[in-house]
Amino acid sequence: MGCRPVPGLRRAWLVLMRGGGHIALFPPGSERYATRSLEAYLAGLDLLFGTIVVMPTWNTLEPAIYDPLLRLMPSEGFWGLLIAMRGAIHLVALRINGAAWWTPYIRAVVSGWASLMFAVFAVTLFFAEPFRPGLVFSLAVLNAVAHYQCLRRSARDAGMACHAARS
Asked: Structure pTM?
């Protein structure tokens, strides 16, 4: 017997995906700029990770090796709240994505905020665990670079918005 598709699954997949394979988090007609899939992915991860860190049973930074990082912030819950807020603000700006003139600027601010935060996190982790460069690179440096790429794209969109406003 051949493999038969689950009824409705293909239809649900087509509704979820639009042309070009972008996840349809953004309603048609509300975007002036191209869909920013990397930004949406990172913003969703920020919201999820920040929410998990805020939970009282979660102790991500409990080992003593994270003491230098813990000295940089009031508490782990506060750090998680900042990450979750940044992700939520970023998702709202991406949802609007050009329907309002200010969305590229908000996207640039939260992407720059994330890139800077992960860069500080990378430096702190490097000095806390100098013998585990894989952790530093995979967790912090790649996130900082990815958020910097989002910052560049949103800055380009902001330049387009500024140029359109002058025209």
From this structure: 0.61
DSSP character string of the chain: ----PPTTHHHHHHHHB-GGG-B--S-TTSBSS---HHHHHHHHHHHHHHHHHHSTT--TT-SGGGHHHHHTSS-HHHHHHHHHHHHHHHHHHHHHTBSSTTHHHHHHHHHHHHHHHHHHHHHHHHHH-TT-HHHIIIIIIHHHHHHHHHHHHHHHHHHHHHHHHH-
Q: Give how many domains the chain has, as a whole number.
A: 1
Mean pLDDT of the chain: 70
Instruction: For residue 155, give its domain range.
Output: 9-166
pLDDT band at 21 (very low <50, low <70, confident <90, very high): very low
Least confident piece of the model among 8-17, 34-43, 51-60: 8-17
Q: Is residue 68 part of a domain?
A: yes
In a domain, 2, yes or no: no
